[in-house]
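Example record

Each entry pairs one chain with its bound ligand, zinc ion.
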Amino acid sequence: MTGKIVKGIAGFYYVHVPNKGIYECKAKGIFRNRNEKPLVGDKVELDILDDNNMTGNITSILPRFNRLVRPAVANVDQAVVVFAVTDPEPNFHLLDCFLVRMMYEEVPVIICFNKDDLADEDRINELLKIYEKSGCRVLTINTGVTDDADEDAKKDCYDKLYGLLEGKTTVLAGPSGVGKSSIMNMLCPEANAQTGVISEKLGRGKHTTRHSEIFCIGGDSYVMDTPGFSSLTPPPIEASELGKYYNEFTDGDICCRFLSCIHKDEPDCGVKERVADGRISSVRYEGYLYILEEIKKQKKW
Ligand SMILES: Nc1nc2c(ncn2[C@@H]2O[C@H](COP(=O)(O)OP(=O)(O)OP(=O)(O)O)[C@@H](O)[C@H]2O)c(=O)[nH]1
Ligand SMILES: [Mg+2]
Ligand SMILES: [Zn+2]
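Structure tokens for the complex follow.
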């Protein structure tokens, strides 16, 4: 029998088998020997141990379409990276690093700024403007959790997001406290995911979600809720390659004097010209310089 791992906790894997339900499984020793660990999202073969208690053994992992390291999940079609417009304030370096990582993994990303009820229109337009040329679709929503939330606005947000998720397996990723689990609950109230409050002292989330978990939001549409992350390392690329991961920099009209230009200290750099005249967002460019340094540091090890 085959199923899909929807959750893994403390050595147990919860495997969903269509029309039967969720089996609590152990992975047999073969995985440990092969250094192969089942991941949430994996399609697996299982032997049923007990149909009444819904227990089984995972005997093999079917070939993976892809796998992500952070968050650790397999077989995703796309990622929705969630940041809050505020509370917590968006960390653009972290967001940009996530985008570079996903591009490296060839996983399309939708950028979702949540909690748009907490910001005015100017701020929202500013955020949209930063990412408008990133090559990602960008949207702003709120999950309607506040007491004065308007039902129509809530329905609009649901529709906006649902339309992008239909028929796909999507991972919700982002820092703690931005509202990933709240989005999960908006999409699928049965998920009943636990949500947390922002720490007043630290101004960030408290890592309410501890394990990745998949929910079916209707038909063959699946969404994975994942724990928040607070730091990310760039993918293993050369500093000279980073520019390729910035859609804004790869416009055919951009011309740098040096072919090997990394758009940092070189003269006659087309990218820097566009940053200076505002055609490339300075936030994106600063993020680029930051990740460039991270890559150089990584290389030293
Ligand atoms: N104002 C406002 N608050 C929201 C919105 N969405 C979520 N929140 C609140 O933000 C806090 C954090 O939400 P969670 O859904 O737990 O955040 P998370 O991203 O799952 O966090 P981790 O599980 O720690 O990674 C909760 O207090 C939510 O009620 C929104 O659209 N607007
Ligand atoms: Mg959560
Ligand atoms: Zn250049």
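The mean pLDDT is 93.
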